DNA sequence: TTGTAGGCGTTATCAT
DNA sequence: ATGATAACGCCTACAA
């Protein structure tokens, strides 16, 4: 790999001049500029971004912390971020936290040690205190899918509780009184919030909520299936299930059929997130739209504006969960 | 951020010694070692990996090029890679190529300029020649989902054509004679191969293949829906569709229902990839298993073994597409 | 407009 | 066992 030094030698100029034509940081005469550019081409010169980063203390990289690299949710989130950043030739470095405090911490440490210019964080288990402290460091951070009052201006989130409330209310409005909940892992904030929203709507309607009516799944298909197994084994009587995400809903629908219960007809199923496949299931999934891709984009736009000073048209953003009615929640009164 | 120099000052040793205790690269007396460790703790010292990378010419990072960050396929692939690498405290830097030559090139350039120790590449549009040349550079590369004879030892792939052949044959065996194909974008190698496999099985069975029986989709749900719209508009008579991936299949199944054609009963649907949701659709999707996660893991294992000299038990790997029979292809003869 | 030289935070090679 | 002191490849005042 050719270095800037070799380019300067070949072009017969100092290496400072080479640096200048690369960065357009000062005026360079047309003649020398051409000489330098030719030399770069001849040598196939590619700047070493590690050296640039060390010398300039910026990296043109923004670090992302997600829980895992697979799954539609994080896929959409990363895609949203990437699509915005790429436009401005910024790169992303991604680490996975795996729902484990150590990994989340290590991930953030790594991103910071790589001189990331900013961090976009989806942390599951890190404490609010830690994040607050982190926000006071020299690397700007933006927090996705979480609300921390002390640093609200850094948080892009959506009211999970209200979303779940909406979902449950829709089911109740459709005439259901025996409604169960399949939640996500309880140590996850969003899962907790969705449980609360569920309970809130139930209480409001004067419907009983028993802890045994809530199954703790894993946010994956298998969690939905396990929930059905559990509910059936408990011989619970129910006509509807509010699921904490679409994956759980899909898993539940499939397992329900194994028990000859037809989702959408005998059992109403409510999803959450409105993942891309939600309108391709059968029955099509009624769910709560969670615009994670747009939220990712917004986070990226903030970074672009705050850190890279690229003028961004940032829309007046307030993300609200909204009900998307499709076919999986039948109206009992009809 | 504290530097190694400050640590050395606080500990009263030279910075070389500090480097030694960090890297256990030479013997250090117990006493000074403790002094240094205390100093590091007191200062909350975190090594700057950019500086390490510049000085040592390694980064403990492996670069990944994928087409996009969302979608189950790439999710599984990244997850497989990450799960192996994380075990050995190696990180990954991910770039997206977007099916565009410029982006793929730029992605690779970026990864190399970041001093990545190795590259795992899923390139769509880069030429074989380019990749062959790249493989001769100083950064080891591993190529996923593609076969280039000249550098076969760097390629981890699977026989797409044979997989598609298997799929089509299964449908034919089930008694179908009017079978259509929904393909992926034709500029993609795997899509081309799957088309060939489809045609091969059809020819072998003496069944007619008309180019109008093949619809070029986008590998997403919408492509599947668009295909059905097209087929219906053409007033084609058909009882089965071989889809180039599961997303297309799911999209097609949903759209089929809009036309009151019941997938799995009136129309046989064959998928490809066996994505995690394939056993949660209704009807459950008969498909070809494409073990992309395992292939990602293998690529990571190669890197670990070849580049990082970490002993890996690498199984005698040859990935074969296999038929996964579920419920979406009905047997006409029964 | 162009060149010189110090610095970014480590590693690594010599000495001692 | 420990300490100087060059690299590493680039940026950036400061000079010229």
From TrEMBL, chains A, B:
It holds the Pfam family LacI. SMART domains: HTH_LACI (SM00354). Residues 2-56 form the HTH lacI-type domain. Keywords: DNA-binding, Transcription, Transcription regulation. One of its GO terms (molecular function) is DNA binding. SUPFAM superfamilies: lambda repressor-like DNA-binding domains, Periplasmic binding protein-like I. Signal peptide: none annotated. PANTHER family: HTH-TYPE TRANSCRIPTIONAL REGULATOR GALS, LACI-RELATED TRANSCRIPTIONAL REPRESSOR. This is LacI family DNA-binding transcriptional regulator.
């Amino acid at each position: 790999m050719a270095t800037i030094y070799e380019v300067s030698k070949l072009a017969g100029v100092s290496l400072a001049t080479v640096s200048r034509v690369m960065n357009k940081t000062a005026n360079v005469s047309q003649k020398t500029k051409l000489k330098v550019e030719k030399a770069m081409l001849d040598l196939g010169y590619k700047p070493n971004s590690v050296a640039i980063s060390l010398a300039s203390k910026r990296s043109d990289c923004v670090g992302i912390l997600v829980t895992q690299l697979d799954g539609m949710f994080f896929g959409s989130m990363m895609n949203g971020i990437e699509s915005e950043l790429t436009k401005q030739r910024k790169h992303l470095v991604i680490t996975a936290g795996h729902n484990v405090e150590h990994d989340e911490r290590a991930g953030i440490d790594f991103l910071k040690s790589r001189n990331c210019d900013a961090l976009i964080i989806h942390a599951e288990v890190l404490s609010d205190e830690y994040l607050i402290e982190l926000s006071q460091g020299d690397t700007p951070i933006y927090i996705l899918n979480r609300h921390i009052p002390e640093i609200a201006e850094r948080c892009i989130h959506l009211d999970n509780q209200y979303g779940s409330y909406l979902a449950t209310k829709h089911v109740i409005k459709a005439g259901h009184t025996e409604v169960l909940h399949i939640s996500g892992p309880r140590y996850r904030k969003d899962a907790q919030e969705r449980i609360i929203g569920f309970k809130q709507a139930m209480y409001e309607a004067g419907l009983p909520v028993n802890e045994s009516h809530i199954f703790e799944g894993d946010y994956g298909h298998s969690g939905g299936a396990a929930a059905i197994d559990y509910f059936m084994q408990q011989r619970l009587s129910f006509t509807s299930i509010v699921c904490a995400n679409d994956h759980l809903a899909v898993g539940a629908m499939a397992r329900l059929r194994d028990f000859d219960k037809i989702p959408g007809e005998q059992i109403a199923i409510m999803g959450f997130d409105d993942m891309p496949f939600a309108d391709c299931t059968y029955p099509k999934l009624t769910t709560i739209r969670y615009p994670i891709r747009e939220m990712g984009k917004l986070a990226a736009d903030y970074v672009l504006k705050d850190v890279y000073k690229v003028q961004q048209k940032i829309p007046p953003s307030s993300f609200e969960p909204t009900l998307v009615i499709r076919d999986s929640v039948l109206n009992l009164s009809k």
